[in-house]
Amino acid sequence: MGRQLPPPLGLRLWPQPYAVARLRSVPALLPQLTSGGAPAALIVGHGEVSLLAPEESVHELAALVETTSEGWRALTLEAVFPLGTVGVLAAASRALAEVGVPMMTFSSHDTDHFLVPGQLLGRALSALGQARLERFLVAAG
Predict the structure, then answer these.
(1) Contact, 141 vs 87, CB < 8 A?
(2) Beta 112-117 vs 65-77: how paired, if at all?
(3) Fewer CB within 10 A of the terminal residue: the chain, N end or C end?
(4) What is the dihedral of CA 62, 30, 80, 118, to 10 degrees?
């Protein structure tokens, strides 16, 4: 396998593999999470409980896991975007769709995160580099 490209300007590639899991119920206790650590999302509603998190965090909740998909990689847009910012995820999604890379997104108050399949990471980084997402960093700043 060839050398992996670095993430494009304005993107942070988290080192750990991620999992997307459907849980049987809302966990009474969540795995140890910190605001400075890798992003994670617990989504509750529409008849399901989903967790998007580093694989080790999902493994800690193994008794609650109904289904899981592992081997995802997480990218974070390294900027604080005003809530009214338009188009950044659309540009990322379009760039990835054009090269056949699926993505799952989740957002925090300030920024956006997305997951891509680990086996397609090189293709994703190349496409995102060509998408020039840094143009949104200037607009958001």
Answers:
(1) no
(2) antiparallel
(3) N
(4) -10
Give the H/E segment covering residue 37.
Answer: none
The residues that bridge with 65 in the sheet, in sequence order, are 23
The domains of the chain are located at 11-140
Q: What mean pLDDT is reported for the chain?
A: 86
Q: Are 23 and 66 in contact (CB under 8 A)?
A: yes
- 11-140 carries CATH number 3.30.2130.10: yes
Helix, strand, or coil (residue 93): helix
Mean pLDDT of 69-80: 90
Q: Amino acid letter at 36?
A: G
- The predicted structure's pLDDT at residue 137: 58
pLDDT tens-digit readout, 93-113: 999 999 999 999 998 888 889
Cβ atoms of 22 and 48 closer than 8 Å: yes
